[in-house]
Amino acid sequence: MSDWTVVGSFFILLAGFLAWTARHSVRPGVDIRTSPGVRVPTTLASEQAWHTAHLRARPFFLAGAAASLAAGAAFLARAALAAEPGSATAPMFTALGAVTALLALGAARGISAARTAERP
User: Fold this and answer.
1) DSSP per-residue codes, 44-63
2) pLDDT in the model for residue 120
3) What is the residue-level pLDDT of the chain in tens, covering all 120 positions?
4) Would you state the pLDDT for residue 117?
5) Within the chain, where are the H helices?
6) Residues with Cβ < 8 Å from 65, sequence gap 6 or more?
7) All residues at 6 or more sequence positions from 29 whose CB lies less than 8 Å from its CB, including other chains
């Protein structure tokens, strides 16, 4: 199995996790102490803060899932179609950086929304 296949599989799994998190973190009755998501003191302050933050961050989780899915498909296609695909390291870090930037932007927006929701 080539490194392109391993990296592609990783990104497919990451896409699934991010999509699941986007859906799971905003459902009613979510346990904010165990649910994956933006887990900082601001979002953990109350269930209202958690939901406000994750509703605001949800589009970024979904965009990260879509970007991960696209990257995973591209890596798997390269592994299947290229005779000599070369090293997957640089493209992997590029894709991972793009997904991380999307998630960081979503987290920042979510935290900001949670702070606003918690103000009296």
Assistant:
1) HS-HHHHHHHHHHHHHHHHH
2) 62
3) 789 999 999 999 999 999 999 999 999 889 999 999 999 999 999 999 999 999 999 999 999 999 999 999 999 999 999 988 899 999 999 999 999 999 999 999 999 999 987 666
4) 78
5) 3-24, 41-44, 47-81, 89-118
6) 14, 15, 16, 18, 19, 22
7) none
Distances (CA, A) of 62 to 31, 40, 84: 21, 20, 33
User: Do 29 and 99 form a contact (C-beta atoms < 8 A)?
Assistant: no
Find, among 98, 113, 99, the residue nearest to 49 by Cα: 113
Which residue carries 């009755």 as its tokens?
29
Treating both helix axes as pointing N-terminal to C-terminal, what angle do 3-24 and 89-118 enclose, rounded to 10 degrees?
10
Q: Which amino acid is at 30?
A: V
